[in-house]
Write a structure and sequence with these properties.
This protein has one helix and 23 strands. Helix content is about 5%, strand content about 55%. The strands form two sheets. Strands 12, 13, 14, 15, 16, 17, 18, 19, 20, 21, 22 and 23 form a twelve-stranded antiparallel sheet that branches. Strands 1, 2, 3, 4, 5, 6, 7, 8, 9, 10 and 11 form an eleven-stranded antiparallel sheet that branches. It has two domains: about 35-205; about 210-365, Sandwich (Jelly Rolls), CATH 2.60.120. It is elongated and about 80 Å long. With about 375 residues, it is mainly β.
Length: about 375
């Protein structure tokens, strides 16, 4: 009964403000994702693509070879069913192998890669790093004049990723099985770069990590005035800790310059229903002119531990005018804004403000 009363009271508090979204569930895992470029072939040596190159060094008879690659392809349907993120991918990275001449099992001492999957069901970006050196069985690497003449490597890489879906931004981590196979380009042999993810969104900090807010970018844009703060209200249903605030921002308000922006968090004023007492602010982020639209993460220092209630998430912009823009959708009485000089931080309380119908594309990220 107490829980039901709490939910009902929060519903009353939310009257007149933006309707909250339901709590976000973790997105589909990346299990079964596969990158595959086996359909591509390498042209003759004279036209060897820049997607593969290498360098070799010798030290006391030990050969160290660095192979750099830039691969792209598709994430097709898998034998176990369709891919969670069907679409295209691109991955760039490097492998560093060390061994004796003629060694069929050199040591992989470093491996790193950055990847992007673009699909209709969400965009996935992330990085992968080798946790510890491993022996790579039957890996023959011949590097001559910067060209990779032979490489055969199969290994597993732990990885961390950021998964962006229509429900928000989530963290992911797991293991990628990498099959990297290359043969003499002079023979026109096929290049096979395939990769399969095995990951699970099971760690406690990954569950329901988008706490509250608007998780889908709005269809309209507004440039941020100098020394101004603006915020939109959202309902928070369960106790938790906000560690970051994400806002959908670009730099297309001007063709030159940059603008400093920080995120702010305020409690609801019980008397007016608008933003009241100050809770937290983030580090500042520099938005350069021309920056493409993206979910910008603003880290709170320190994190803010909140009880259920209505909170106002917002942005404060610095002295430059109209460079950074935020996305929004029209929702009745969904924004308050006022003048607030950036150099001395956000005011406490929020202060007298103006109202309009711009619900900002902004959400809180953290843990329950």
């Amino acid at each position: 009964m107490r829980l039901w009363a709490l939910v009902m009271s929060l519903g009353v508090l939310a009257c007149g403000v933006a309707a909250p979204s339901t709590l976000a569930a973790p997105p589909p895992t990346l299990t079964g994702e596969q990158f595959d470029t086996s359909l591509f072939t390498i042209p003759p040596v004279a036209n060897y693509p820049s997607s593969y190159n290498c360098s070799t060094s010798f030290d006391d008879g030990v050969i160290t070879t660095i192979v750099r690659f830039d691969a792209s392809g598709s994430t097709p349907s898998q034998p176990g069913g369709p891919s969670s993120y069907p679409g295209t991918f691109r991955e760039t990275g490097s492998l560093t192998l060390r061994g004796m001449p003629g060694d069929l099992a050199p040591e992989l001492i470093a491996a790193s890669a950055e990847f992007t999957i673009s699909s209709s069901s969400g965009q996935v970006t992330g990085t992968k790093r080798l946790a510890a050196p491993v022996r790579v069985e039957d890996a023959r690497v011949h590097c001559e004049e910067g060209l990779v003449y032979s490489l055969n490597a199969v290994f597993d890489l732990p990885y961390n990723a950021t998964v962006t879906t229509p429900d928000g931004v989530f963290r992911d981590r797991g293991v990628a099985h990498l099959d990297f196979f290359d043969q003499s380009p002079g023979l026109g042999a096929p290049t096979d770069y395939s990769e399969t993810f095995t990951s699970e969104l099971s760690a406690p900090e990954q569950q329901h990590s988008v706490l509250f807010g608007k998780r889908v970018p709005g269809g309209s844009w507004s440039a941020m005035s100098a020394n101004t703060k603006r915020a939109s209200p959202f309902v928070f249903y369960f106790p938790g800790t906000v560690r970051r605030i994400h806002a959908y921002i670009d730099g297309n308000g001007a063709t030159s310059g940059s603008q400093l922006v920080r995120a702010v968090l305020y409690r609801r004023d019980p008397r007016t229903g608008g933003p009241g007492a100050y809770v937290a602010r983030s580090f500042e982020f520099t938005v350069p002119a021309g920056m493409s639209a993206r979910w910008v993460p603003f880290w709170l220092a320190p994190p803010a531990t909140l009880q259920p209630g209505v909170y106002w998430l917002g942005l404060q912009s610095a002295g430059q005018h109209g460079i950074a823009r935020y996305a929004w959708d029209s929702v009745a009485n969904a924004r308050r804004f006022n003048v607030d000089v950036d150099s001395d931080g956000p005011s406490d309380p929020f202060g007298t403000s103006f109202a309009d119908d711009q619900q900002m594309s902004i959400f809180a990220f953290g843990t329950y």
